[in-house]
Design brief:
Shape of chain A: globular
Order of helices and strands of chain B: EHEEHE
CATH topology of the largest domain in chain A: FAD/NAD(P)-binding domain
Largest sheet of chain A: 6 strands, antiparallel
Radius of gyration of chain A: 22 Å
CATH class of chain B: Alpha Beta
CATH architecture of chain B: 2-Layer Sandwich
Strand order of the largest sheet of chain B: 1-4
CATH architecture of the largest domain in chain A: 3-Layer(bba) Sandwich
Number of domains of chain A: 3
Strand content of chain A: 25-35%
Distance between the termini of chain A: 38 Å
Number of helices of chain A: 8
Shape of chain B: globular
Largest sheet of chain B: 2 strands, antiparallel
Distance between the termini of chain B: 26 Å
Structural class of chain A: alpha/beta
Oligomer: heterodimer
Strand order of the largest sheet of chain A: 23-24-27-26-25-28
CATH superfamily of the largest domain in chain A: FAD/NAD(P)-binding domain
Largest interface: A-B, 31 and 27 residues
Strand content of chain B: 15-25%
Chain lengths: ~425, ~80
């Protein structure tokens, strides 16, 4: 298993559970056993949990070898060897690639190294940011209003810290949810006291004596900050596959419908599967469109599928789990099923955004493609079912708390 | 809650699939020192409870209506 995160761990467990009794090695570039990342942008920053608390539960026993604190450097498929960064090499009969992603760094390398500039991906990142937040900085600037950016901004408000959220888009979460629903969620953050700067881009970080002091925006304005959190998404860890003959680019490592990796001639290598953030695969629910999903539940489901495959069990059907995720932003819970990509319509089918409690369903060409629940988790499964079956949009019969005529179809607001 | 608790060398390992969680809060009744709902449905749980609290944690795991709680070494 190359990658000792959630996917690597669950893949290894599935391999064992499927009857594989041979040698099993997990390689991870962090020096830690697999741990859960979601608390790192929430309860760890709040100080409710230490950063090292979230080691994942596992059924693996002592019959596995851990190679931690060492990364993979190259893959030789002909010789079936993984070369490691410490010069060692590991032969394999079967390989799971679950190298995941890393935080996208700030664009200017020298500025990224300034003191009090953070990204959040690892538990060490989170521990360092927690220490700085606990010292009660005067103002935090968060660059990027995606899920991590929103979670961090909400944490700052819970800690009663001044925080600005900066994004070139028109609202929070615009890329994933569109500006219509993204704006509804952004309104919650604005009311909680987050200063919003949309349509605004940070050009440079300002600094003095090696420490960040503020940001300069593209329009020439300055904003003071003693802490800057860069939340610009993730970069897939595929560089080590250069020269392997596999088809990989920043969008992911290509797999067939089962998760076997593809070479640059689109031929599957049946000794290697991929799972989690790094894997790009054709999703049957979306017409075989190739997607790479950075979701917790997907890492588990795809790794379990991949582990069984590596153990030699025949797949009953292509991997087709409905994508899902959650995000806890302050005390607000945002959950989603399906993919909003290409949605041409959205309707609020339950609840009311003004009460911070609603379900939005996204449609594409008259079919349900995604549902987003805000503080409405119990309503999500029936809409996830609509998505899984590509039911007609809008799903009027489930909108039980409003008469049919009130179902307003809106533009989801994707750029 | 967890941050105030003394941690032992070999705590239990707990994770909750928050995609599944629907905030029925049965875990909060079963193990109130380790599970809490903030707001309407934001679950906060201790991923590393003391092994001495195994009975409470097992009760929480079994009580979950959507079976979202995973505990290392449990017989699940």
């Amino acid at each position: 298993m190359v990658g000792a995160g959630l996917a690597g761990l669950r893949g290894a467990e599935a391999l064992r559970a499927s009857g594989y009794r041979g040698q099993l090695t997990l390689v991870g570039d962090e020096p830690h056993r697999p741990y859960d990342r979601p608390p790192l942008s929430k309860h760890v920053l709040l100080g409710h949990l230490p950063a090292d608390a979230s080691r994942l539960p596992s059924d693996l026993t002592d019959d596995v070898t851990w190679r931690l604190g060492v990364g993979a450097r190259a893959l030789d498929r002909e010789a079936r060897i993984v070369h490691l960064t410490d010069g060692d090499s590991l032969p394999y009969d079967r390989l799971l690639i679950a190298t995941g992603t890393r935080a996208r760094p700030w664009v200017h390398e020298d500025e990224a190294k300034l003191a009090n500039v953070f990204t959040i991906r690892t538990r060490d990142d989170s521990a360092a940011l927690r220490e700085v937040l606990a010292a009660r900085p005067k103002r935090v600037v968060v660059i990027g209003a995606g899920f991590i950016g929103c979670e961090v901004a909400a944490v700052c408000r819970e800690l009663d810290l001044k925080v600005s959220l900066i994004d070139p888009a028109a609202t929070t979460l615009s890329r994933v949810l569109g500006t219509t629903v993204g704006g509804m969620i952004g309104e919650v953050h604005r009311k909680a006291g987050v200063e919003m700067r949309f349509g605004s881009e940070v050009e440079h970080l300002e600094h003095k004596n090696g420490r960040v002091t503020g940001v300069r925006l593209a329009d020439g304005k300055h904003l003071k900050a003693d802490v800057v959190v860069v939340a610009l998404g993730a970069v897939r860890n595929i560089e080590w596959l250069d020269g392997s003959g596999l088809s990989a680019d920043p969008g992911g490592l290509d797999c067939d419908e089962h998760g076997f990796v593809l070479d640059d001639q689109s031929r599957p290598d049946h000794a290697i599967t991929a799972a989690g953030d790094v894997a790009r695969f054709p999703h049957p629910l979306y017409g075989g469109r190739r997607v790479a999903l950075e979701h917790w539940g997907h890492a588990v489901a795809q790794a379990e599928y991949a582990g069984r495959l590596l153990a030699g069990l025949e797949p009953a059907a292509p991997y087709a789990a409905v994508p899902n995720f959650w995000s806890t932003q302050g005390t607000m819970v945002v959950k989603s099923a399906g993919l909003t990509d290409g949605a041409d319509a959205v309707a609020i089918v339950q609840g009311d955004p003004a009460e911070r409690r609603f379900v939005a369903v996204y449609g594409r060409a008259g079919r349900c493609v995604a549902a987003v629940a805000v503080d409405s988790a119990r309503w999500l499964p029936i809409y996830a079912e609509k998505v899984a079956t590509a039911a007609p949009f809008p799903p009027t019969e489930t909108a039980t708390d409003r008469p049919l005529r009130d179902l307003e179809i809106q533009d989801p607001g994707f750029a | 809650m967890p941050s105030d608790m003394t941690r032992d060398a070999a705590p239990l390992r707990v994770s909750v699939d928050l995609n599944l969680c629907q905030a029925y809060a049965q875990c909060c009744y079963a193990a109130p020192r380790h599970f809490r709902i903030d707001g309407r449905e934001a679950l906060f749980y201790d991923p590393a409870p003391s092994a001495a609290d195994r009975v409470d944690i097992e009760r929480a795991r079994l009580a979950c209506p959507v079976q979202a709680i995973r505990v290392e070494d449990s017989q699940a």
